[in-house]
Design goal:
By secondary structure, this protein is of the alpha+beta class. The chain is built from 23 helices and eight strands. The strands form three sheets. It has a four-stranded mixed beta sheet with strand order 3-2-5-6, with helices on one face. Strands 1-4 form a two-stranded antiparallel ribbon. A two-stranded antiparallel ribbon has the order 7-8. A hairpin with a 5-residue loop joins strand 2 and strand 3. The protein is globular and about 90 Å long.
Length: 482
């Protein structure tokens, strides 16, 4: 039997380490236009080699132009020779090597370095919801499948912080094990902010109560046992079911009123912000739909040509030359990251147009099911790249301003063997409810039957979920006396 004690051992493993350049590239791809301007302004303030290219004429500001066209017509940035690229390549290798040497010499792991970076960056800027949740997810489980499922759930959150899709649908769409997705969802429900990842308001309230050690309180019992009577303000019925005094029911309601109904609220930067569309879809003169990229909010950068002349001279010392080469490398990488961002968004917009042409022709009722996995395969990138490209990006369509993520939705089978998107089903339900008799509102079973008459094969519980998503209460709460 081995003696208990502290032992030291070495273990070698292979993993992916994100360099600061790659982190910057991913951040630039994900941020919306307003934040991109801030990122670029900060980089230009820190890098004297960068300057903004002024538009050739004022007409270029009056109408959006395709990105490739703008790139061809605009002034070309500083051209570098082969020797310069070789120097930049060697500098990148030296920089990466020195970066990891610094990490090893400081005696802590890459995870420690990431935590230190997060702490330093958080001192000057508030983390996004996805970053906040990703930090918690790193230590939530050692199971790689659960970690991947956590990433999937975080990417699936809506603007409120809810998971709208069924977990089984998410697992099927992503190809991940259902057990891993359910385990990840249980972990996510314990994250901060309380209630994050809930599938409905009831689950959101219960998660907040559990985190407050109030999982067995009267407020929790109201949610689990008396949700419908409570929403109908039938307090006497709630008191009778729970065997609690009426004053106790009122106290429980007051406790529920203090809970958060939008878990992601504190991470919303500005609910009244002005949204700038990244792309527009218009019908061309030839009768075909086309994508037009709006790059007016993305400044074009170049490297100041004078610095190349300084490098060619002999007056610079080794430190000054190294400084200019380093800033040149950083500038080139930033310019390339911005251009790659625009190309990725444009490619994503074209795929959305191709897959959702019925929506552009006829409106939301004709929206088709579309998954990020399918788009990622078509673009030849990872699914998370599609998620970053779609996050906080907007498209101006003939049917209003739509966020890119809005076009990704699960589907419901139809009687002809096709599918219709979730938003399309909600449009049909809204139409059915608008036509109902207010004195005799339709129950969920009747709505389900009407949808099946229209060729949509759907379960009653799914109808109830979509009805609640539309903000419509149950039938007896919609009844109006005429």
């Amino acid at each position: 039997m081995a003696n208990p004690g502290i032992n030291q051992s070495q273990k070698q493993f292979q993993g992916l380490v994100l360099t600061p350049q790659l982190r910057q590239s991913l951040r630039i791809l994900q941020v919306p236009a307003a934040e991109l301007l801030r990122e670029i302004s900060e980089e230009m303030a820190a890098n004297p080699l960068l300057e903004e290219v002024e538009p050739v004429d004022s007409e270029s500001l009056d109408a959006p132009v395709p990105f490739e066209q703008a790139e061809e017509e605009g002034p070309r940035e500083l051209s570098l020779g082969d020797d310069d690229f070789d120097a930049l390549k060697r500098m990148k290798e030296d920089w990466d090597e020195s970066y990891y040497e610094e990490i090893r010499s400081q005696g802590y792991t890459q995870e420690d370095e990431e935590r230190r970076r997060h702490m330093m960056e958080s001192a000057t800027g508030e983390a996004s919801l996805s970053e906040h949740l990703a930090d918690q997810a790193r230590t939530a489980s050692d199971d790689p499948a659960v970690q991947e499922a956590l990433k999937l759930l975080i990417a699936s959150l809506d603007e409120r912080g809810f998971v709208e899709e069924d977990l089984s649908t998410l697992a099927l769409r992503s190809g991940q094990p259902y057990e891993a997705v359910t385990t990840a969802h249980t972990l996510l429900m314990a994250f901060d902010p309380p209630g994050i990842g809930a599938r409905d308001l009831r689950e959101c309230f219960l998660a907040q109560l559990r985190q407050r050690s109030r999982g067995l309180s009267t407020a929790a019992r109201l949610i689990t046992d008396c949700w419908e009577p409570m929403m109908g303000r039938r307090l006497d019925e709630c008191a009778r079911v729970l065997d609690v005094e009426l004053d106790g029911i009122r106290e429980a309601l007051a406790e529920l009123a203090r809970l958060e109904t939008v878990p992601a609220r504190r991470f919303s930067r500005d609910d009244n912000r002005v949204v700038t569309p990244d792309a527009s879809v218009e019908l061309g003169d030839d009768g075909k739909w086309k994508v037009i990229m709006d790059d007016r909010h993305v400044p074009k950068l170049r490297l100041v040509p004078a610095y190349k002349d300084m490098l060619a001279g002999q007056a610079l010392g080794d430190k000054e030359r190294a400084y200019i080469l380093e800033r040149m490398r950083q500038g080139k990488f930033l310019i390339g990251a911005i251009e790659e961002r625009q190309r990725t968004i444009e490619k994503l917009a074209h795929i959305i147009l191709e897959r959702q042409v019925d929506f552009f022709e006829h409106g939301p009722a004709k929206l088709r099911p579309l998954t990020m996995t399918d788009v990622a395969k078509e673009m030849g990138v990872h699914e998370t790249t599609v998620g970053r490209a779609a996050a906080s990006k907007w498209m101006l369509t003939p049917h209003g301003l739509r966020e890119f993520r809005w076009f990704f939705t699960s589907g419901v089978a139809t009687s002809d063997g096709g599918t219709v998107a979730q938003e399309g089903v909600q449009e049909l339900i809204a139409d059915i409810l608008a036509r109902e008799n207010p004195a005799e509102p339709l129950a969920d079973e009747a709505i389900t039957a009407e949808l099946r008459k229209r060729g949509v094969q759907i379960a009653r519980r799914t109808v109830a979920k979509y009805r609640e998503a539309l903000g419509q209460p149950s039938a007896h709460m919609r009844r109006k006396r005429l």
